[in-house]
DNA sequence: GTACAACTTAAAGTGGACTTTAAGTCAACA
DNA sequence: TGTTGACTTAAAGTCCACTTTAAGTTGTAC
């Protein structure tokens, strides 16, 4: 247990554990998204809580936050609890943007699904499938 | 009715109608995603069915297809019904990729939501909120 | 007839997120 | 002791999807 907590990893191992390249880790560090520890020879090493931290960053990144926004978030975090409202505002904005894009891509997917269904009908040689895709969409109420 | 069908638009008007810039339209044309008609002076003009076409392309693009894939799709389309299986395969691959990423971003969102809730609890000054975020996630069963 | 806006082209530039390169350091192993 | 292999740095390069620039043409409005 103690051992697990205190385990450390060189950059290559760390990178593999989180599914990024060592170069990307260095890039993230340059951008201020994370900090590394250094051994006596100047080589980076990382801990299990660094893994948690990067995974969390990747979740935020996955909801659409850009590197600069993550950087801002990290800076606020370093400034202590006084910046919690700022951080919260940033995360909520991200959440809103995400929900907006979510609705949009759902509609894109609907059209993609419809097109696939339309092709499949056409491929099965449905005699009446001379119907143009736009008409088909209209019929489904999926146009626009 | 006849009028609506035969209405044409210069590139600026067309661009506005579909929410792209005129430059982007020209870029898409260069990339082979669409064709324009030309007037006697060599200027592009577009029809209502061009609008439908670009909107459809944007739906595909919105599900994650890249310009080169859209180009491939357009080329197959120009080759006639013999390429329907190819087109269908491309669209289904897009659909699969989309579903995969969809699941991923849903998880990213879940973590974002949890983090927001955690900050809100902290902000409300919940006395017991010295709980680290990781522990909070574990408690919710949302870790990883 | 001249000003103006909207168009035309080819080519260069941009932004974001990495990725690669070049040159070097270091520690462990045969 | 010498050769790997993993690391170090700063800087340049890449990819994608546009966007901007520069120089020129055209149709309409005054």
What does this molecule look like?
Two copies of one chain form a homodimer. With 144 residues, chain A is mostly helical. The first copy, chain A, has a domain at 1-57: Multidrug-efflux Transporter Regulator, Chain: A, Domain 2 (Orthogonal Bundle). The first copy, chain A, contains seven helices and three strands; from the N terminus they run H-E-H-H-E-E-H-H-H-H. The first copy, chain A, has a three-stranded antiparallel beta sheet. In chain A, strand 2 and strand 3 form a beta hairpin. Chain A is elongated. The N and C termini of chain A lie far apart (57 Å). The mean pLDDT of chain A is 93. The A-B interface holds A 52, 55-56, 58-63, 81, 84-85, 87-88, 91-92, 94-95, 98, 102, 104-105, 107-109, 111-113, 115-116, 119-120, 122-123, 133-134, 144 and B 52, 55-56, 58-63, 81, 84-85, 87-88, 91-92, 94-95, 98, 102, 104-105, 107-109, 111-113, 115-116, 119-120, 122-123, 133-134, 144. The structure holds a DNA duplex (30 and 30 nucleotides).
What is the secondary structure topology, with strand pairs?
The structure is a homodimer of 144-residue chains.
Chain A: H1 2-6, E1 8-10, H2 11-18, H3 22-30, E2 37-38, E3 44-47, H4 48-62, H5 67-78, H6 84-123, H7 133-140
Antiparallel strand pairs in A: 1-3, 2-3
Helix pairs in contact in A: 5-6
The first copy, chain A, binds a DNA duplex (30 and 30 nucleotides) through helix 3.
